[in-house]
Amino acid sequence: xxxxxxxxxxxxxxxxxxxxxxxxxxxxxxxxxxxxxxxxxxxxxxxxxxxxxxxxxxxxxxxxxxxxxxxxxxxxxxxxxxxxxxxxxxxxxxxxxxxxxxxxxxxxxxxxxxxxxxxxxxxxxxxxxxxxxxxxxxxxxxxxxxxxxxxxxxxxxxxxxxxxxxxxxxxxxxxxxxxxxxxxxxxxxxxxxxxxxxxxxxxxxxxxxxxxxxxxxxxxxxxxxxxxxxxxxxxxxxxxxxxxxxxxxxxxxxxxxxxxxxxxxxxxxxxxxxxxxxxxxxxxxxxxxxxxxxxxxxxxxxxxxxxxxxxxxxxxxxxxxxxxxxxxxxxxxxxxxxxxxxxxxxxxxxxxxxxxxxxxxxxxx
Length: 365
Ligand code: ADP
What we know:
two-stranded antiparallel ribbon, single chain, 3 domains, Helix Hairpins
């Protein structure tokens, strides 16, 4: 491989020399012919053949020397301004091919260098940065999933072991069996969410828009939490505009409301209040879900849409940090907007704004 490369280098140097030789010979011959004819005219005599032969030999030697000098200068210039950056770029891309995305290429010095290289270097550095981000996300995701799976699996293992004791009283047996069922439910929920998120992120879900009444869908979702609000004695306030028809994927949108209501009831203490409002104009529908729960700090608020992020670890067993990541993805797919306002100890409001007609989006997707 190296031998092949050095042969190629020799060929390119020799061919460069010939190009310069021809160029120098052509330019010099033209100049000399012009000079000689002007000289003959001005001194009024013809040059003899031997004079011309001598001058031709000297000129030939000069042309060869000039060509050699030009080829040498060009060789050094190419080494410094072309081969060096090319070598650095190929070395860096080879490292990236091996999975090392930490490489960055220093820009070439501006003097005499081709700016095109700096543009390529900038693009490659950006690409490496993006790839290392994706790689971190991927490894983080695997670490998080494995970590989240460990807790319910450990619960199931421990209670399973305890259940093997034949002398266990019936009520303990029931308690352990329930704990195992609950842990397996958590595991199943998490895997369902992971799969949904994965499909949503890889665009494997093709939204299926239908026209439906958004107010009705919100009520349907809210009613699922009736037992929770009754148990926790949470007051409900609803202000739902009538006949707000939207054309969107109902199943995906239901995922958004279910997750937002589930959080509102989860993070609101007994005796608190959850408020739902739906307003709409010609183009957009706006849903606000507020609670008087624990609220969150700005630091927590900045991360809540990240996968597996759980700001409130005291309620970590009641979720898996995937709910809002799913919500955000669905809202993004619908090209809607989601915002959150929250104050610790006061409460939280999530505002979702979606286009009432998502049909057009579908066709362009
Ligand atoms: P989880 O399964 O933990 O609820 P989510 O993705 O639904 O996961 O929420 C991520 C984090 O956002 C929660 O752990 C919590 O800290 C914060 N959060 C979400 N909704 C609320 C809310 N209504 N009130 C206070 N904090 C909230």
